[in-house]
């Protein structure tokens, strides 16, 4: 079942988010979290996200504005290291409380509460029109890098904030897509370095076939990005955004309650 859910998620979301610059990590991480421990889900999502960004760079990276990349991505990479380190520390904190539903044991942990809250916040970007239109002046690019990088390292969710800052950098559509892909790639490299050192290898060894699952997800994300690159203009599906937003709210509440 995990292969079907995660592969289809990677395919559909990747094809729809090439131009928006965000969505793959936000939606794919909860899909992994249904089947694996939360730190493993964040790390697995980062691997798929990194590989997909490499593919997007091949497709559109030549259009990147390197001045914007330097101002935004260097700050984002530094903050991503801090966020990833914090995730590794929080993953070792004991459960706040536990309870049973039938024969199932559920743990409420600090890391699940924090990431659940973050998922709910990012779900609001899909549900609230005011947040969909959120953007910031170009002078705040380094601040945007710090915020999006930190949350990317901590929870795997960074693209919505990144796009909100980059959208006001006076880039045309092609430069926006290319710059977004390069910035996402740099953040992914930074946070994966920390995941590897802290818990990534050890946790992957405990969950069997997740390496194969990650490879399958990468392949389907590649296919989705290829399909998205063939689109003439940005795909906007308001109904899909609302459905995804509601689903993320459910996942966020489920994490906070220890059900996921």
Beta-strand percentage range: under 5%
What is the H-and-E element order? HHHHEEHHHHHHH
Please describe the biggest sheet, giving its number of strands, its sense, and whether it closes into a barrel.
2 strands, antiparallel
Low-confidence stretches: 232-237
The share of residues in helices is over 70%
**Average pLDDT level:** 77
**If you compute it from the alpha carbons, what radius of gyration comes out, rounded to the nearest whole angstrom?**
17 Å
Q: How many helix segments?
A: 11
Order of strands, main sheet, comes to: 1-2
**Number of discrete domains:** 1
Shape annotation:
globular
How many E strands?
2
The assigned structural class equals mainly alpha
Query: N- to C-terminal separation?
Result: 16 Å
Short account of what is shown:
With 260 residues, the protein is mostly helical. The protein is built from 11 helices and 2 strands. The chain has one domain.
Summarize the topology:
Elements: H1 2-17, H2 24-33, H3 38-60, H4 66-90, E1 97-101, E2 104-108, H5 110-127, H6 129-132, H7 141-155, H8 159-166, H9 173-206, H10 210-229, H11 238-256
Antiparallel strand pairs: 1-2
Helix pairs in contact: 1-2, 1-10, 2-3, 3-9, 3-10, 4-7, 4-9, 5-11, 7-8, 8-9
